[in-house]
Amino acid sequence: MSQTKVYKNTKAEKAIRESYDALLKMWGTDIEERDISGQYGTTHVIETGDRNKPPLVLFHGVGDDAALMWVYNAEELGRHFHIFAVDTIGGPGKSVPGEGYDKSFDDAVWITEILDKLGLDKVFMAGVSNGAYLTQMYMIQHPKRVIKGVSMAGVPVKTSGSGKKAAMKAMMKVFLPEALFPTDKNVRKLIRKMTGSHYSAFTDNEIVFQHFKQLMTGFRRSAMMNHKVLGFTEEEIFSLSDRLLCIVGKKDPFIMLGGAQLEEELKRYPLRVEFMEDAGHGINHEKAHEVNALIIEFFGARSTGLL
Predict the structure, then answer these.
(1) Alpha carbon 291 to chain centroid distance?
(2) pTM of the predicted model, to two decimals?
(3) Quick one: residue 168, left, alpha or beta (phi over 0 = left, psi -120 to 50 = alpha)?
(4) Per-residue confidence band for 160, with pLDDT thresholds at 50, 70 and 90
(5) Residue range 1-14: average pLDDT?
């Protein structure tokens, strides 16, 4: 698969990459952009933060990229961590899928390659939405390589066939019909559906808004089809005890689908879960200061001796 298949056309790719670079200038940090070659192609990584602090690997969600995802988090988190923000291969951003990126793709193998080639043995890890899943999955499959993890807008629950169908229905309910006709008006309506009252984090910053819109109009979501979401067993979820913090918004439309039933389900597991009032799926944008503080505190200084 070539990079051109990630985007609908070269014009869309050019526009997205230009606004990607504009977003990086908003981070407020010194950055180094790195390209990591592996069996699945080239993975783009944004390196920033204090190189004398412990490593923090960050994963974004489906349909967005590292430049957009961490625009309101990188500066503060970078004071406490050596950050490696990954562009998911097959997603928008600057990662380039290669010939090996096919149905045999394995997220855990891909992440291990990245860590190995960056020379990272043990890391902190965090992600939003699909990035939350990647964090949970990797903590379960490679527990010795992740000290602690933070999941935002995503919780580790058992996944069944019916659960996947419910998630797909929720996705359609949230994104349709606005995603079919992504005018400025419809994109703003979609943002309002996905967030709490702090939607201005997306709508009032023109660079953020235009990049979000460009991703909706120019990215081929089918390019992510090789990523598989695996179900977790109860034993696997219990293995995350004391090592995983989940931060979720009470107005997240995907979390609301589970409602009180989801909250009760989560109580069965020894996980720390922080529900934020008036926050939606873009929780780390909507509540950036609060989310940053929770991440820093959870990974914090005293329990690991690393900060």
Answers:
(1) 14
(2) 0.94
(3) alpha
(4) low
(5) 81
